[in-house]
Amino acid sequence: MYKFQTKYGRKLELDLSLWKIDEGFGYCKIVDRSEDLLLLENDYRDRFWFREDLIHSNEIPIVNNRLVLPETLYEYWFLKDFRRESKEALDQLYEQHAALIFQNRDLVLSKAEYYLLKPSALKSGFAYSGGRSYSLGRLFESIESGNHIYYPEFKGYKKLYLVSMSASPLSGHVSKAVFWSDETHEFVKLNSTTTLPDGFGTAQGKAFIELMSGKEITMDREDKAMQNLIGEINAERK
Q: pLDDT tens digit string along 139-190?
């Protein structure tokens, strides 16, 4: 178990055996063969194809149908694609269910594997200085803290919480800003044609980046955790 304390003091535990893949050596067993490829299964029961000739050229011993892949080969043949596909699936699920998730913030904050979910859409920053990615949990904790960037009313919308933004670091010109309305349960997306409150792209933008700052453990199988979250939300609604 990995125990951690969030920015606002919440104590959570992450089961690393379920949500974190060892990035070191790949302990695998051979489960099938197809021509010059081997179907390998790691200790987490993930399966992937691997070229058999690389076993011989790298002098990797096979004992009782088991082998250990060096870190570079394990990364190239499994982890890289696995994580890319997992992130793509996560982003698709988030896009489909984001409004539902924002209406169930307490559930996200209750479990480490939900708290640490980091969809690609959750990224903010200033041009030329890179962006900062952050988790659902960090965003939701900030919203619940009472210190978040919040507008009671703006452009006809009410109870607006900032979700993400991008702006120029010099002029403060905002190219994009996304808010969540707790009144209508919808996302409000504003672009550069919208006149935002004074200081939004400078002081408040910097304050938001600071709220979202801090190190967080990187979790694997985010798509699976997101599926579990959506399933739990839907079960509670019945």
A: 999 999 988 989 898 888 899 999 998 877 655 567 788 999 999 999 999 8
Say how many domains are in the chain. Answer: 2
Rounded Cα distance between 152 and 183, Å, is 10
**What's the pTM?**
0.87
Q: Give the torsion through C-alpha atoms of 91, 95, 96, 98, to 10 deg.
A: 110
- Say yes or no: 113 and 164 in one domain: yes
C-alpha pair distances (Å), 21 with each of 17, 38, 71, 155? 7, 21, 12, 46
Integer-rounded Cα radius of gyration of the chain: 22
Q: Report the C-alpha dihedral over residues 46, 47, 49, 51, rounded to 10 degrees.
A: 70
Residue with tokens 């896009």: 95
Read off the pLDDT of residues 36-81 as tens digits, 9 standing for 90 and up: 999 999 988 899 999 999 999 999 999 999 999 999 999 999 999 9
- Domain region containing 202: 98-237
Closest to 87 measured CA to CA, from 218, 221, 217, 216: 221
